[in-house]
Amino acid sequence: MISLKKYAFRQFKKLETRAHELNYLFWECTTRCNLNCIHCGSDCAKDSAFKDMPLDDFLKAIDTIEDKAPNFTVVFTGGEPLLRNDLEQCGKELRKRGFRWSMVSNGHLYNRERHYSLLNAGMGALTISLDGLEASHNWMRNNSTSFQKVVNAIELAASATRLNFDVVTCVNQKNINELRQIKDLLVSKNVKAWRLFTIIPIGRAANNPDLQLSDKQFVELMDFIAEQRKAKDIDVKFSCEGYVGKYESLVRDSSFFCRAGINIGSVLIDGSISACPNIDRSFSQGNIYTDNFYEVWQKKFQPFRNRSWTKTGQCKSCREYNDCQGNGFHNWHGNKQNVLVCHHQKIEQGSV
Amino acid sequence: MKNNRIRNVLKGLSFTSAMFIFQACYGTPQDFGYDRLVEGQVTSETTGLPIKGIKVSVAGDNSYYVTTDDEGKFSFYSEKEENVLIGFEDIDGDENGAFRDLFKTVEDISESVYLEIALKDKL
User: Fold this and answer.
1) Is the separation of the CB atoms in A154 and A43 below 8 Å?
2) With an 8 Å Cβ cutoff, is B100 touching chain A?
3) In whole angstroms, what is the distance from residue A61 CA to residue A271 CA?
4) Which residue of A6, A120, A223, B108 has the smallest Cβ count within 10 Å?
């Protein structure tokens, strides 16, 4: 028999799925990048095959949205969004239309001048990546000056009280033993929120064993987050990348619910309409250059809103399926016959 | 409305905090809307003509400033706080005329504020 809490959350998810209110939209505004990170899931490069998407093209797409949800946020992602010189103009146009906007950045170009011009243009939230202490961060970012630059960026961002700012860290073999020191560093820089990820084996990360945690290390990570959340000196959490069974209530604010295609959409660099940008591109539901964006959001996205097709491979007989529903959507790549990473299984095996 | 009530009850029963707002795993936190739009136009009290090049900033914080354009217009986002003092300063000497600085207190905390500012000539 399941608990009332679990039952209520399952029903809540069903209602949310039925309503599928779009309120979080990624815009892959560029795939150019100034770094060459070894874990990049997008395989971004300095010379992208795609030109940056013109602002007008994106605006035409989002102008089709009929019922805009309160606090609708457009999240600029890439590539590295700061490579666009018109970012401030993009932000102002969105605010004129009543949308809020935010940005995910590697922090490399985030200097004082840009910080203030982005705030002046109405940026309200920001995420910056820090992937370790100096050596391990620079190793992952493939750049000897990245750490110093990102620490400067973090100091600037943390100083702005109007900005909802957090730092994300991709936990891997090189930094798992540094987590306490990273936390101390962030607290010393006045950072209020820290999100921890693992790296899914896609893009450049697929062939690098140093980037993957063993099952035991994954359990160590869960225990670390659970312990740090009790201290309350910084809001530490595990990202919503997957279902973590017995750790669900210990490492996050809410139980696992992958909202890709339910509340989260995206406009990708080639105009494709999808959900989170790290989801297999074969799941694209349309294209802004040929389809009405909002019509696609309202009428398509069936694989996202009915996930019964994920009951295959190891998920088929899993007793946790009703709460997990095939894990994070980005874990379904290639032939989609099995989930790429099962966090729950890692915990079961790592706890032995 | 009914669906929202049911949704909130279920949210409560599943111990999902009322304050909880989701974020996509590779995205940013939600923007809570702690800023507001400050815009307007600066003109000459004597001639009524727009003044270009006036520095507009939140007083005491030199970081947040813009300058007025050819039409004397400006816009920027500022902290949403009560009694914010906005400064209008002539920083380009005589280039677009010489005007006395002015500071205006914005008392309310509405989502946006439009300011019409007339600057006196410098004596």
Assistant:
1) no
2) no
3) 9
4) B108
- B23 contacts A240? CB cut-off 8 A: yes
Cβ-count burial of A90 within 10 angstroms (0-12 exposed, 13-18 middle, 19+ buried)? buried
> How long, in residues, is chain A?
352
Element spanning B113, H or E: strand B112-119
Tell if the CB–CB gap between B26 and A77 is shorter than 8 Å. Answer: yes
> Which residues in chain A are closer than 8 Å to B9, comparing Cβ atoms?
8
Rounded CA gap, A141 and A110, in Å?
16
Per the structure block, which two tokens stand in for B45?
Answer: 């009290």
CA-based nearest residue to A196, from A166, A157, A160, A230: A166
**Residue B19: pLDDT band with limits 50, 70, 90:** very low
Which residues of A are less than 8 Å from B63 in CB distance? 112, 116
B3-17: average pLDDT: 64
Rounded Cα distance, A147 and A141, in Å = 9
Q: Which of residues 128-147 of A touch B (CB under 8 A)?
A: none
Distance CA A322, CA A10 (A): 8
